[in-house]
Write a structure and sequence with these properties.
globular; alpha/beta; 15 helices; binds ligand 4UV
Length: 545
Amino acid sequence: VNEGTWTSGNIVKSPAKDVEIPNRLIPEHIWENMEKWPDKTAVICGITKRSFTYHQLYKNSRNLAAKLRNSLNIRDSDVICIMMPNSPDYALAILGTLQAGAEVTTVNPIYTAHEVHRQLLLSKPKLLIGIPETISVLKDALKLAKMDIPIISCRGYANNDLPDDVIAFDELANATNVDYDVLKDVSRTPSDIALLPYSSGTTGLPKGVELTNRNIVSNCVQQNSNGLRHYQDTTSTYQDATLAVLPFYHIYGLSIVLLHKLSVGVKVVTLPKFQPQSFLTTLKEQKISIFCAAPPLILFLGSNPEVKNEDLESLNVITCGAAPLPKLDIYRVLNKTKKNLAFLQLYGLTETAPLVTTLPNNSKNYVSAGVAVPNTELKIINTDEIALGPNEVGELLVRGPQVMKGYRNNPEATKQVITEDGWFRTGDIASIDEDGALTITDRVKELIKVKGYQVAPAELESILREHPDVEDAGVVGVPDSRTGEAPKAFVVVKEGSKTKAMNILNYVSERVAEFKRIKEIVFLDSLPKNPSGKLLRRILKEKYA
Ligand code: 4UV
C-alpha cells in the first residue's frame, strides 16, 4: 500500500499536503483575493447577459447587507430563505445575506408550496427572496405555515413585473446613500453558521444542515491545493469560465460552482435551467473551460446527437458527482472531446460542505470518485465498526474541517451520524484502493437520488399516509436508465378501499416537485417490519423492486 496515504488504524489520508485554513468569514475570503481582479466578470447570466464584475458584486452585496440591517431589521443569525433559479442576483443575495450577519437557507425553485412550507416551519426565516415566478408559491407556503414575513423579489426571467406587495431587490442592491456603519454591528465568527441547506441524511425527513463559515472556507481552500486543483490562476490575461447549470439551491452548485469559483476569480456563467439549446450555445459563447456536471448531463453530452465535438472545444475540465456515473456515459463523452480534457468524478455530501474526494487533472482513473482532499481523513468500517484495509468494502466515514456542525435543532440525528471523535458516517458503501482512491459501490442509507437530487423516502411515505385510503406505505429507489433512480411505492390500503393506483399517484404528484413523483405503486397486504415496527426497506427492495 501507499504509505503516507494509508496510515495506522487503516485511516486513509490525502496524498496532498495539508493546507492552512484561513480564519475568515465566507465573504471576507472572497473579497480577500478580489483586489487582484476587481474588473473581471464575477457572474453573468448566459441568457440575458446581465453581469456583475467582482467589484460590483462587492459593492452591491454590501448595499444589500446594509439595507437588510437598516430597513428590514435583519440581525445576526436570522435566517433568510432564497427560492429562485440560478442568476447573478443569486450570488448577490447570498453574499448580501452573509454580510448582514444572517444565515442562508436555499429552496429548490421548482418545489410546491407544500414542500416549501415544511422548510419554512423548520428553518424559521425572517425574510424570503424570490423572483416573480416563485412568489405565488412562496405566498401559498407562508399561508400553509401560518407565517407572515416580508418577501423580496429579484427580476424574473420571463416576467419583469414585480407583484405590488413585495420589496424590489434591485432597489436594495443599487441603493445610493447607504449607511454602511450599520455593518459595524455585525458580529460573526468563522464558527458561526452561514448556510442551512436541507438534506435527509441517513434517514427520515429533510433536516437543516448547519454549515459554518469555516466549513465552506475550508472546502474552498481544500480545492486550491496544487496537486488537486481544477482551475488555472486568474491573471490579467487569463480567466477560467465555469457553467452554473446545476442549481445553487443544492450544495454542489452553491459551494463548488459558485462560492469556490468566486473565491479564485473564475467567471461564473449562470443558466436558470437546463435546456439543450441554450446550454450548448452558452458553452460556446462563454468559452466554458470548467464544467461541473451531474450524471444526467454527462449522459446528455455523450449520447445526444445534437452535441458535436466542436460544442465541447473550450472545455479543459469536466467534473461529475452527486450520484453514480455509468461507465459507458464517461467513454461516450471522452470520445467526443479533445485528448487532454480532464474528466474527473468527485464525491461529496451536503453534510461535508461538500467536497470529500477528487483527482488531479492528469488522472486517467475515470471510474474512481477520487482521493481525499487535503486535511481530510477517510476510513471504511464493517458492521462491527472495525476499520478495513485496502479494497475491502464497508461504510465510508469522513473526518475533516468541512464536516457540518450538525443538524439544526436535532441533536439526536446529529449524534447518529457524527461520532464522539468527529467521524461523519456517510451512509455510503465504498472501498479504497492501495493508493487511496475511493470507489462508491452502494448506499446503506434510505436516500434516493433522482438525477443527483435528493428524494427522501420518509417524505413520500408521510404524504402517502395522509391519503384517505392509505393505511401504510414504504418507498424505495429503483434503477432508472434516464434519472439514475426513481421512487417506487409499496402501499397497504384501508379495508374496503377500492382506490386505484392512479388516484394515489396523482395525490402525491400534486404535493411534490416533478422529480420526486412516484414512478410505480405496488399494493401489498402488509409491509415487512422488524419487531419494533420499523419498516424494512431493504427487504422491500430485495423482494419486490
Ligand atoms: O447531500 P447530497 O445531495 O450531496 C451531493 C453532493 C455532490 C457533490 C458533487 C460534486 C462535488 O464536487 C461535491 O463536492 C459534491 O450530491 O448527496 C450525497 C450523496 O450523493 C451520492 C452519495 O450517496 C452521497 O452520500 N454521491 C455523491 N457523489 C457521488 C455519489 C459519486 N461521485 N458517486 C456516487 N454517489
